[in-house]
Every structure is written in structure tokens, then in C-alpha cells.
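Batch manifest line 798
LIGAND: HDD
JOB: complex structure
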Amino acid sequence: MEQTFDLTIIWAGLIGFGLMMYVLMDGFDLGQGILFPFAPNEKARDTMMNSVAPIWDGNETWLVLGGAGLLAAFPLVYSVFLPALYIGVFLLLAGLIFRGIAFEFRFKANKSKHLWSWSFAVGSTVASFAQGAVVGAYIQGFETEGFVYSGGALDWLTPFTVITGLGLVAGYALLGSTWLILKTEGELQEWAYKITPRLLGALLAVFVIVSIYTPFIDETVKNRWFENISIIWVLPALVAYCAFVVIRSVQKKQEGMPFVATMGIFLFSYLALIASKWPYIVPPKFTIWDAASAYNSQLFLLLGFLFVIPIILGYTSWTYWVFRGKVKEGGYH
Amino acid sequence: MELDPLILSRIQFAFVVCFHAIFPVFTIGLASTIAGFEALHFKTGNPVWLKLSKFWIQVFAVVFGIGVVSGIVMSFQFGTNWSNFSYATANFLGPVLSYEVLTAFFLEASFLGVLLFGRDKVPQGVHLFAAIMVATGTFISSFWILAANSLMQTPDGLEMINGMYVVRSWTDALFTASFGYRFMHMGLASFLTAALVVAGVSAWFILQKRELEANRKALSVSLWFLLILAPAQTIVGDYHGLNTLKHQPTKVAAMEGNWETQTGVPLLLFAIPDQEAQTNHFEIAIPKLASLILTHDWDGEVPGLKEVAVEEQPPVFVVFWSFRIMVGLGLLMIVFALWGLVLRPGGRYHQTPLFLNGLRLMSLSPFIAVLAGWVVTETGRAPWLIYGQMTHAQGLTPSLTGGMALFTLIGYIVVYSLVFSAGIYYLLKVFRGGLEKANAPHEMDEIERPTRPFSAAHAAIDEEV
Ligand code: HDD
Ligand code: HEM
Ligand code: HEM
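JOB STATUS: finished
ARTIFACT:
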């Protein structure tokens, strides 16, 4: 087959981009669900839900695209991750269902409102935890035979993945609280200012554990970080800097900065993770080239991506533009 | 007891996909119906069409919402339970499913917001355009997903290299031998579903003497559609079957309950197929008719089940009876269409309680026929996942244990029953509210939350405190 240039690299970039889009966009609305039980009062809960109601649906379509895109570009990832994380995937989907339905029914409910509140909170938390556990499982690596997963049903569930799961719950909650700082005012915003540093603390604690643990279980990672001290140390430095900015901007009661800086924390730690593992996409054995689909399939879909994704991005930004500004009690006006 | 992950995975897949299929088959037809109402209102300016459109948009919103959440589950089922299959077909299935998201789901999502919430915010023409785009999106979606399914029935355009299919020709792989028939048959099924549900619900409103003018118009239009669609479906179904005979003869043998390859095959009206004994009990048959239908010749030869080894036969009983349920309901639809035609003079079709009550019941029939049809198609393909090339067992996730499969099967059943009974309950409430409630002025602007399906519906899910 004639290969003019390496599409696999392009696809790695596209899928990486798609995943980041999903994490940032669905992250802050999952965060609302995680923070839900702790909110100061029922009115605050209404506002929290309203603040993400018009956009969460589109956000989740990125997950569907991510799933289908992985199958198209890196089938090995799809066919190893999903069986390996079988029970986790079920929890993720069940969580998303309960949460999605709660969005629709909570506003329509009278007597059963608290039920839908719980469905929203538990669904969001379970879905976030499952996603965090997936990251942990990726770092741990998978037992494979040939191109097939050969481990057990609960191999993914270790103390380490529980920690990464909780870490992502804290991280999404942080995205959620800084989003509230941006989008709300008064009592709810005060509360969000108050909890933000604590959530940040929890997230950083998980980062420290992961950073200490990862080099121990993976020789390649250890060499990469410690053998020839290199440029990649910039990334954790940037994470630390962003964390500092979050704290400072919360102290100064800035409104936009905490959210932007939190997105920075996610972006740079994501890049650091990629830098540790590159080019392994199904650790410990398979690189992106082992996992890639056929050249002609990659090309066939790439054409569609390049044409349609800009349109979708345009539409998405338009929706955010329509719903710009603060949410007042009772929704957007 | 040994739990078999294969059987459990098949039950699970059948359960989630059948559950999912109920909703798209309705939304595909209903989207076009709404676009039709909007177009009629745009052209004639008659407010009756607007009333109807407003009501059915509410129903649409709820059904669409459930379709979306259950669809998200579907896109992960392939990987969790059928990882060998996904891996082998990824070069085809991956791009096809991705294109479905790119070209259909995002399109539907974008214009849905305008359709549901934009009536007062955009010009009437733009609103109509949005309705048409949503309808188009549902068809694009069925194009891709049925192309994927048809490839599994009548594979073409692929070549197996090192355990993975590589696409040799995208046109061959997308437009396989059965695709055209399946697309037509499924499209007609969706329109039939919409026509029969609209007819049934309108009949119910008429019996209650509510909004008579609008509901009579809706009933009249849907009966005309039924009169065209029901016979058309039978004809398309017949051609579909002839094509299947050519490419999947064993499936047709199972549909006909025909064990031996023979000429002048009778059409079985009733029988109890017995796989173990490789024969039927209690046959009631019309001589030679099956040969006539399948070969258009009274003495045509039709291949029998015994052409293939017992392990390669599909479960005959299931296929045989599902096929009869589908065709039986199809014929019943024609009966109702003709009955409506007979009652047409003097407008008796909206004054005959027996007919109206019959229509109420018939509104469930397309859903049953669709599920029965899919069971024929999918179970009739057994034991093959990709016909003649890969079996269910080969496609299964190797690491899957019976315990895991049972856990998620029960999990999905529990989650779906809980969440979706709430959905159905709510839908019934929208029906009870009727056109009156859908057209009442409301305090919607209080909490306006566009782009989210259910918010278009105004009924409360439970009683006021
Ligand atoms: C892209 C592929 C695809 C599509 C569009 C569909 N199916 Fe399918 N179906 C399969 C791919 C498949 C499969 C992967 O091939 C299964 C899974 C397990 C199996 O037995 O075959 C299957 C099995 C399967 C079974 C069980 C058959 C058996 O195990 O004997 C039923 C009843 C259905 N399907 C019904 C449906 C319905 C109602 C659909 C409408 C949406 C549908 N299928 C669309
Ligand atoms: C078995 C394979 C199937 C898979 C994997 C699948 C996947 C999906 C997914 C992920 C969604 C939700 C997308 C969103 O977020 O908006 C969806 C919705 C939809 N699906 Fe399916 N689907 C399958 C079968 C079918 C079939 C056979 C049809 C029709 C012929 C169909 C038609 C639709 C339509 C029209 C929607 C839009 C939502 C709705 O109308 O309820 N799907 N599907
Ligand atoms: C009345 C005469 C009918 C005939 C002769 C007929 C024939 C067929 C045949 C032969 C198949 C299997 C095709 C295959 O697996 O290759 C099929 C499938 C199917 N039928 Fe029918 N059918 C009829 C009526 C209906 C009706 C009324 C509906 C629904 C409203 C319906 C919905 C379906 C569906 C959804 C499938 C599965 C998808 C497909 O393979 O097209 N059919 N039909």
C-alpha cells in the first residue's frame, strides 16, 4: 500500500484532541453532579443544573465520537480496553444514563424531585470515578496474549486505580466549582470560592501519589523522567504554576481565572501523561503503530473529520455564545 | 452450573439493541411526519396543522431522548462483548460508525434545538428547514447503521489479511447485496410506525371527543399513508425475501420451516418446528404456495435446512414464528387500510367506534412487527456473525466469563426498567394532556433550557405536592 505520510501520527493527535475536548467539556458538567449533595441549598442546586443544562448533551456526543473514532483509528485500543474494563464500562454507562435522565426529569418532578437529584449526583460521581479508573488502568498496563486481552474481570480494580478514580472525581469537582465561580454570583459563588482550594488540594495529593508510583511500575517511564533530565520536566512545573494561579486568583476573587487555570492543570498533566507513555497506547506492549487500523480506513475517515469537525466546533462555540453570561436563579435569560 | 458467556452475551445484545430499536424506528417516521405538518402549516396557514405539530413535537422529544441514552450503550456493546468481532471488522465498522456520529448525530443535535425551542425565535421558514434537517439526520443515521448490518448479512468488498478485514472497495462494502432492500424495508417500517401511532392516538382522542377537527385531519392523513405504505411494505418484503434466498438460503429455509430441498414446497400456516428431530409437527399448509412466492413458479425448487450441518442451522422455531408474526401483522395492517377506505365515504372512518378502537390497538403492531423482523434477520443469520465467515463464538470477547456477562445483563435490565418506565410513564402523561395541553400558554420562559429534548414537553412527571 502506498503511504505518502504517516496518518497514524495524525490520528493520534486527533484522538488525543477529541479526548481532551471531552474531558474538559463534560468534566465541568459532571462536576456539578459530584458537588450536588454538598450544595448549600435547593435553590443552589437548581442553578447548578441550569448552568450546564443547555450544553451537556452536545458535550456527551464527544464521548460517542471518541468511542467510534478509537474503533476506526486504533482498533486494538477498543478491543483490549473495553473487555479489560468490562465492569467499569458498565458502571460508566449506567452512571451516564441515570444522570442524563435526571437532567430531563428533575425539572418536571414535584414529589419525586429528590430522587432525581440523587440519580444526578450518584450517576455523575460513578461515571467520573469509572473514567478516572480507566486512566489508572492505562498507566498500569494490560495483560495480553497476541492481540487479545487475557487478564481477569477485575484486574483493573487495584488500590492504584481507586486512587486515580477518586483523583478524577476531585478533578471534575474542581472544574465544576471553578465553572460555578465563573457562571454564578452571590451565595453559590461564595461557596464555590470556599471549596475550590480544598478540591485542588485533593487533586494535587493524587498527582503526587501517581507521580511517585508510576516510575516504580514502569521501567520506560522511569528512564524517561530520571535518566537524562530533560525538557519534559517543564510539564509538571506548568501544572504547579497553574495550581498556584488557581489559589491566587481565588484569593483575589477573580472570576474567570480559576476556571482557565484549572483547565491548564488538566491540559498539562494530560500532556505529561502522554510524554511518559508515548508511543505506547496499549501498555506495556503495543505502540500506536501496532494498534493502528489500515491506511485506507484511516484516510477514508480523515476526510470526513477534516470537513465536519470545524463545522461542529463552530456550532458548539455558537451555543456557548448564546448562553454566555451569568446564570440567574431560574435559568438563563 | 456453568454459565455460558456466549448465550448470555447474545441475550444481552438482543435485549439492548431491541430496546434501542423501538425508539429510532418511531423517531425516524415521526420526524418526517412533523416536517410534513410544518410544511402543511407553512403552505396553507391552517392553524390545525400547527396544533398537531406542537403536540407531536412533544412526543418526539421524549422518544428521541430515550433513543439517545440507549444508543450510547449500543456503541460500546461491540467492544465489551464482541471484541474479536470488533477488532476483525474495525477497518470497516470503525469509519462507518464514526461517520454516523459525524454526519447524523451532530446534525440532529444542532437542528433539534431550533425545532424544539426556536418557533418564536426564528422565521417560520427556518423552523420548517430545521424540521426537515432533523428528519434528514435520522435517515442518514439509518443509512450508516444499516450498511453496517447489511455487510454482516451479505459481506462484500473486504479481504481478510492477518486476522483483520481490509476494505478493498468502499462502494462494494457499503452497498452490499442486501443493503438496498433492507434500507427500503426499514424506511417503510418507520413510516408505518409513525402512521399507525398517529392514527391510533388520534382515534383515541376522537373517541374522547377532544379537538375533533385536528384529530380527524390527522387520522385521515395517516389512513391515506397506511393505504399506500402497508401494501408497499409487503411488496418490498417479498423482494427482500427473494434476495435473501439468493444469498442466505438457510435463513429462508428456516423462515419457511422447510427441512428438505424439494420442489412444489407448501406454505406453512402453522407448524411446530422440532430442531432435534429435524422435522415439523402439526403442519397446516397450502400446497405449493411457498414455491410460488419464492421462485414465482408452482414447482420451483427451494433449498432445505438439511443442506447444511445441524450446527450451522439457525434456531428454526424462533425464526419461523417471528417471520409469521411480522407477516401476519403486515397483512393485518393492509386489512385496516382497506377497512379505512371502505369507511371513507361520508366520513364514517371517524364515527365507527369499533374501527377506532381497533386502530388504538394497532398502534402497537408496528413495534412488534419491527422487533419480529429484526429477530428473523439476526437469529436467522445464526450461527454466523458475518455470514459464512465468522461465527458468534469466534466473535466473542475471549476474556469474558459467564459471571461477568450475567452481571451486566442483569444490570442493564434493572437500569433500563427503572429509567425507562419513568420515560413511558411520562409519555403517557403527554398523551393524556393531549393537544390542549401542548397548545396551552405556559410559563416556559421561567426556566428555558434549550437543546435538551425533554424540555419541550410541558407536562409534569408526577403530581403536584
Ligand atoms: C451493526 C450491526 C447490527 C445492527 C445494526 C443490528 N444488529 Fe442485531 N446483532 C448484531 C449486529 C447488529 C450482532 C453483533 O451481529 C449480533 C450480536 C450478537 C449476535 O448474536 O449477533 C446481533 C444479534 C441480534 C439478536 C440476537 C440474535 C441471536 O443471538 O440469535 C437480535 C434479536 C437482534 N440482533 C436484533 C436487532 C435489532 C432489533 C436491531 C435494530 C436496531 C439490530 N439487531 C441491529
Ligand atoms: C446495533 C447497532 C446500533 C448502534 C451501535 C447504534 C448507536 C446509536 C447511538 C450511539 C445513538 C445516540 C447518538 C447521540 O448521542 O445522539 C443512536 C441513536 C439513533 N439511532 Fe442507533 N444504533 C444502532 C442501531 C440503529 C438502527 C438499526 C437504527 C435505524 C435504522 C438506528 C437509528 C438511530 C437514530 C435515528 C438515532 C437518533 C436518536 C433517536 O432517534 O432516538 N440505530 N444510535
Ligand atoms: C407483509 C409482508 C412482509 C414481508 C413479506 C416481509 C419480509 C421480510 C423478510 C424476508 C425479512 C428478512 C430479510 C433478511 O433477513 O434478509 C424481513 C425483515 C424485516 N422486516 Fe419484514 N416483511 C413484511 C412486513 C413487515 C412489516 C409490516 C414490518 C414493520 C412494520 C416489517 C419490518 C421488518 C424489519 C424491521 C426487518 C429487519 C430488517 C431487515 O432485514 O430489513 N416487515 N422482512
